[in-house]
Design a protein that fits this description.
This protein folds into 3 domains: about 220 residues, TIM Barrel; about 130 residues, no CATH class; about 45 residues, no CATH class. The chain is of the alpha/beta class. The protein starts with a strand and ends with a helix.
């Protein structure tokens, strides 16, 4: 019953992939596991998928921090609670405001404080105090022992073993742009922030069965199931699929005449062929929405570039989504849409860095937040960057880091050959 687990989506803090975390939990017979990455929910869907595959009950939450300080934990009791947690992160991200020191009134969220920041009498019904394993013995002479209904187990998970602890410290030094020798205890997690077998974890709290029962009650009350699939996409542009096809056909045929002239039989035949496939694959609304976005950008005086497999479509060219002539370049529409392609088609539409925010704002307001989402790309440390960051962490000079980065392959190869020769000599 770990209420506070981090993956490497707790950026430059967590060390574990979601797969490794769930596999280890399943191997130890852990029945429920709570994902609570720091100010981040990007791993939730992947975490839930692994949990379902391996028979672990997933609980979703967020560890809220400000300037590195652990403020509180939010655990979603249901989809509305999960929405509330994400709404707070979104509001703070868009406005630039810090995470509030006190959580909102969240009826669908369990709030767990890592320390007693206010009197228990001021706790809301859904607010609890987390007790770490190393603090259990302090309850013997503390009045909190009389309020076990407000206490839960709090055993954070950030790594598995001593190697993970070392990696965690390296990541923290990289994040803080300091040498590892200058890390303070407040800059890192605890050495025991690791996944524990259920019997080991429970043994720390055996004198306080009320805490165990309360933690189990919290975990069992949290149920968030994701609904995925195309049903969440906007289904039509005009409000009717037949109307969508009529509008797209009108735009495409008129645009074809403007692009190729009124008597180009090859172009007209290709347009009609594509329109038939687009209708059969139910992508009329997709084309019209892309056209609408481009139309708005043009009305605002913004330039765009349409790329991707969508450039193979003469319909996209005719209605102005792209400016690539598929007939001139002999591009095949079937690469973009065909009955045997499992993934949906994609339009890559690029706007200038100083204009795309306005286009994005238009999309949100035009189609509503329930149908629009921004997708993020996470950059990971590649070999050269990792070497250079670690060089700084260990206090090496720029010249030393440059030398290691330029010659590390040769150094590793030499070490491997020496080890192989040494081992061979021992065997002989």
């Amino acid at each position: 019953m770990h209420l506070n687990c981090h993956t490497y989506f707790s950026l430059r803090y967590g060390t574990l992939s979601p797969r490794r975390l769930v596999e280890k939990a399943a191997a130890w017979g852990i029945e429920s596991l709570a994902l609570t990455d720091i100010n981040n929910t990007s791993c939730a869907l992947e975490f839930c998928r692994h949990c379902r595959e391996l028979g672990v009950n997933p609980v979703l939450g967020v560890e809220f921090r400000h300037n590195g300080e652990f403020l509180y934990l939010g655990l979603a009791r249901n989809p509305e609670g999960w929405r509330a947690l994400n709404e707070l992160l979104t509001a703070c991200s868009l406005s630039g405001a810090p995470i509030p020191a006190s959580p909102p009134d969240w009826p669908d969220v369990w709030v767990v404080y890592p320390k007693l920041t206010k009197a228990l009498s001021q706790f809301r019904e859904n607010e609890l105090l987390g007790i770490r394993p190393e603090h259990v013995n302090r309850l013997f002479s503390h009045e909190l022992r009389h309020h076990q209904h407000k206490l839960v187990m709090l055993s954070p998970v950030t790594f598995f073993d001593d190697d993970g602890w070392t990696l965690h410290r390296l990541l923290r030094a990289v994040d803080l742009n300091t040498v590892i020798a200058k890390l303070q205890p407040r800059d890192t997690g605890k050495t025991n922030d690791r996944l524990l077998p259920p019997e080991t974890l429970h043994s720390y709290y055996r004198q306080y069965p009320g805490i165990l029962r309360n933690t189990r009650r919290v975990m069992e009350s949290c149920q968030v199931d994701f609904e995925t699939g195309l049903q969440h996409n906007r289904q039509t542009f005009t409000g009717d699929k037949a109307g969508d096809f009529e509008l797209l056909s009108k735009l495409a045929l008129n645009g074809c005449g403007a692009r190729y002239g009124p008597h180009d039989r090859n172009a007209l035949e290709r347009v009609r062929k594509e329109l038939k496939a687009i209708r059969e694959q139910d992508f009329c609304a997709y084309f019209l929405i892309a056209w609408d976005v481009v139309r708005y950008a043009r009305s605002a005086g913004y330039r765009h570039v349409g790329r991707g497999s969508g450039a193979n479509s003469i319909v996209a060219y005719s209605i102005g989504i792209t400016d690539v002539d598929p007939l001139e370049l002999d591009l095949y529409f079937e690469r973009f849409i065909n009955p045997y392609r499992a993934s949906p088609p994609d339009f890559d539409i690029d706007f200038s860095w100083d204009e795309r925010d306005d286009v994005t704002d238009y999309i949100f307001k035009r189609y509503g937040r329930e149908h629009v989402a921004l997708l993020a790309t996470y950059s990971t440390f590649q070999f050269n960057a990792a070497v250079r960051e670690l060089g700084k962490v260990f206090g090496l000079s720029k010249a030393e880091i440059d030398f290691i980065a330029d010659h590390l392959g040769e150094i590793c190869s030499a070490d491997w050959k020496w080890e192989e020769a040494h081992t061979t000599g021992q065997n002989e």
